[in-house]
Amino acid sequence: MTDYTYITPNPIALVIKNLGGKVIIRATDDGTTVVSLNGAHADEATVTQEGNTVTVLSPNFDWLDAGFLRKWFRSNRIDITVTAPTGSDITLQLGGGETEIVGKFGRVEARPGAGDVHMTDAAGETSVHLGAGSITVDSITAATRLVNGAGNIKVGAAGAETSLQLGTGDASIAQVSGTVYVKSGAGSVKVGAVTGDLTIDTGLGGTSVDRISNGRFTYKGTGGDIRIGVAAGTPTWTDLSTVVGRVNNALPSVGEPRPGQNHVELRVTTVSGAIELMPV
């Protein structure tokens, strides 16, 4: 194992370019940045500090292509562990391997080719573009964009402007209190509790919203059923349309909302699939 330690009393800009291997980044408040490299060729990596920027560059990174990556990754992966000040900005260019970001950082831009990505907090502007694998973010409190070509996206609490885009794979969000947009080519979309604004645009796959108690929900689908639960007694305006499929609206009429009362607006359009609304 090769270690590098830098005195960094303030947040830094951390840049990591790694062909393959596990990357773990943890936030710390001890005024230092520590980089640990593990692998057969760890001593060939370049680690530098220039002003406020700490850069980790794996050997031969600029040779990145599909064939070279497969050969290199099998025997030359480098696992990287970094502790950096809370609020630091992170830029990642990664070939393949698991990525874990723990703690509250500033701006995060990550572009892994393949592998699983887990963030505990998207506390600064965040962008993750993944080729294949899974993306998990526990909490979102700043503008966030998550893109996955092939694989799932899972979000705990989305409390800020959030965009999820999937080619193939399932999307799930436990809580929506911000403004959230989900676009999926093929796969299911599951949402828990909604108190913000939610838009879903999906190709093939079923969609469910467990409970919406306030806000706007707009849905556009090509093929697949959609089920929506609305908090009992909540005034709800609906615009429902399906070309091929049935509509089952079991919501009772409760009249117009009083000034300041929570209310729900539902706009649902689907080409083929059932639409079901029920009080919960």
Biggest sheet features: 14 strands, mixed
Shape: elongated
- Helical stretch tally: 1
Binned, the helix content reads under 10%
Report mean pLDDT, rounded to a whole number: 93
Multimeric state: single chain
Gap between N and C termini: 55 Å
Instruction: Return Rg in Å.
Output: 22 Å
Strand element count: 27
Order of helices and strands: EEEEEEHEEEEEEEEEEEEEEEEEEEEE
- Low-pLDDT segments: none
What this model shows, in words?
With 280 residues, the protein is mainly β. Helix content is 4%, strand content 63%. It is built from one helix and 27 strands. It has one helix at residues 66-76, and strands at residues 2-7, 13-20, 23-28, 32-38, 46-50, 53-57, 79-85, 89-96, 99-102, 108-114, 117-122, 126-132, 135-140, 144-150, 153-158, 162-168, 171-176, 179-186, 189-194, 197-204, 207-212, 215-223, 226-230, 236-244, 247-249, 264-272, 275-279. The strands form two sheets. Strands 1-4-7-3-9-11-13-15-17-19-21-23-27-25 form a 14-stranded mixed β-sheet, with no helix packed on it. The chain has a 13-stranded mixed β-sheet with strand order 5-6-2-8-10-12-14-16-18-20-22-26-24. A hairpin with a 2-residue loop joins strand 5 and strand 6. The protein is elongated, with a radius of gyration of 22 Å. The mean pLDDT is 93.
